[in-house]
Amino acid sequence: MVSSHILSAYDEELKYLRRRISEMGGLAEQMCGDAVRALVNGDSALAQKVISDDVILDHAEREIQDKAIVTIAKRQPMAADLREIIGTLRIAADLERVGDLGKNTAKRVIAVQGHGVPRKLARGLEHLSDLAAVQLKEVLDVYASRSAEKAEAIRLRDEEIDAMYTSLFRELLTYMMEDPRNITTCTHLLFCAKNIERIGDHATNIAETIYYMTTGAVPEGERPKDDTANTVGAIAD
Amino acid sequence: MVSSHILSAYDEELKYLRRRISEMGGLAEQMCGDAVRALVNGDSALAQKVISDDVILDHAEREIQDKAIVTIAKRQPMAADLREIIGTLRIAADLERVGDLGKNTAKRVIAVQGHGVPRKLARGLEHLSDLAAVQLKEVLDVYASRSAEKAEAIRLRDEEIDAMYTSLFRELLTYMMEDPRNITTCTHLLFCAKNIERIGDHATNIAETIYYMTTGAVPEGERPKDDTANTVGAIAD
Questions:
Q1: Looking at residue B178, which CATH number applies to its domain?
Q2: Which residue intervals define the domain PhoU in the entry (chains A, B) (predicted)?
Q3: How far B184 CA lies from chain A's nearest CA (Å)?
Q4: Span A101-129, mean pLDDT?
Q5: Is a pLDDT exceeding 60 seen at residue B227?
Q6: Domain encompassing residue A201
Q7: How far apart are CA B237 and CA B235, in angstroms?
Q8: What's the number of domains chain B is made of?
Q9: A184–B173 C-beta distance less than 8 A
């Protein structure tokens, strides 16, 4: 009786951690969308909201961490249960980083506001952001369903975001070369694009962590990488 | 007799983790210096070495992680010992990220090589990189000595790197505006500067983790932040 009582309290602790991760995920997802909307529309109030939300996200990570450590110390879990908790710590850290990237984008609103973001530039960034939002949303769904197979599928799709980032990078460079007055705005947009591309990387990290939590193994093979924006150079000649 | 034998095996495991973290730190530190040298001198062979070193660093993180989890499961540590192992996991993750940032810088060698990095631009980047290297080296020394006081001192010094990054960001923007032929090279240098600034952030994270490992607490107050480069805009008018 006592033992089943303890077991159930333990299950409650794991459930609590899971719920908190889902909440963090929901907030991080919303922040990313808000940050790009704030930037594109020059909406300082929305940018400020993203910056405040990041404080909530930071506290959530710290709370999950404390809770997870207390659970490990109290319950001394083994194997799958231990992986579950270690995985929770890693996912919380990734979501916290996603929030930081959203905040960084939001902060740039002040920089581009006066200049305004030309519609044709905004479109590419919005598209990239939508793709990252889908990736983040889906990986959070997989977190709830714990399918190693789906986690692996999401992990392999990071390629798409990388390719779109590379194309946006090239496009923004050409706008800068066309007109020096675009340089500051486009530089900030380049960093925002990079932030969004990295949100995709964190979604991929989360997919790998779910795979590990479910199977105890690390996914086979390098994830496909098409980050040629790091080496784009020829178009500047 | 048996119990002291177990205790000593446990100490050996902790010592092993500590040694592996120091090795990771040494490699990450070297990679960062090499990456900037490779970039500034257009040295593709050195860039390739940094990219290969990153694979070693990734494997080291994974190995530390597996080892740490086995240790938690086998030894079921409490309080300070548990913090030690959780802290180890976090530091390994930060060092792995430092390696990624070094690799990202090294990859840009291909992009700027044909153009060459003007001496006056390289100087600012080298200076920033030296500062980050000192920060990283000192935090690794503090990891060995476990002084919460020194960890806190390093954490507060991140400000200096942020200020220098902001100044370099402004400088690079002006070079881009002066001559559109600088745009591609300077864009890559901006990203490299951002990478180095983020290496400073990871050194700060490590300092916070050491503080936590030593005291069980999180350092008081927000760390000073002077990342106004995110909001620099006026100079583009």
A1: 1.20.58.220
A2: 21-109, 126-209
A3: 6
A4: 84
A5: no
A6: 2-236
A7: 6
A8: 1
A9: yes
